[in-house]
Write a structure and sequence with these properties.
Length: about 350
Amino acid sequence: MNDVDPSALAALGQLSHNSTIKPEVLAALAALSHNDFGDLKMATVTVEDQGGYGIPLQQSRTGYPIVCGQALVTSVEPGDVLVEINGKLSETLGFDACMSMLANVRPLTLRFGHPKGTEQKLKYYGQRWRPFKRKLRMKTGRKRESVPVALHTIEFMDSGPLGMRIGQSAVDNAVIVADPLDGTQAARYDVKLGDVILGVGRHLNLQGKFGKTMHYLQTHSRPLKVLFGRPRTRQAYVDYYGSEDGPAGMAPPDDTGITGPLDEANRQSAARPSDASARASNVISSAYAAPRRGSVGGAAAPPPKLSNWKAPPARAHDPNFVPPPPPPLVSKGQGAAAPPPPLPGLGG
């Protein structure tokens, strides 16, 4: 066994109080260097009042209650494990008994731990992360190529909306087009903008099959397992926006759930969505539908582009400077545009 710093052994004695950690784990910890051991964190939280305790918990794959969101207590972070409740090991109590104690027993003394190296072992229930071993056919700029993706499976247990806004990518993949709303299942399970849905239920090869993906999402019963791919690109924008530069020069997501270059084909597609696109607009999360253009609270329409006028240079040093108005738009082969006719009943 390696030599251990005395201060590390002293801390180890504090951690072994009430047999919080198994003897074999203690032996393994004793063999760690001081630097490794210093990353082992234990936090104690006391709850005296009735009601909520401000720490979102979920069952980890190893059975421990694990913090699955931002806690109101600053000493507890997402990924921390609830090791002990009132001196009793959560591993011995079981997850259901732990949740019952948290709801009904006061006062509570909770001990949380987050040893180094256990983050990947203590993932939230229903998630399985895998490295970049699968390739995803995507459009990057003007060409299509295979991009490595990280895979993870999420099991949606609850009924109701999944909280995901889904659009159709340039290569017919189903893509998450906006970060999920806080508090929804999708947000709780770490779904992000740019994630690609590659499988639903037993259908695990839905790449490039947007219509089928939407059909399975709408008709599958719960629990529902969804296989996501996360492209290893700049903020995962490539597949959806078609460029690593993000949404520059692209139409913003509207109520059709589709975005793309501002060309006539896309305008017509957005105006008359296909069946699959129409399903995307109503899918899953009616609460997350973007406001229609021109509606109250929606994004204002962009101003028309004037081909024969450029904005004057800024003159911030002169507070009284007022830029001149742009000249009227003149079509090719024509003179100045005629003024609009007066409205009926207003004279002129």
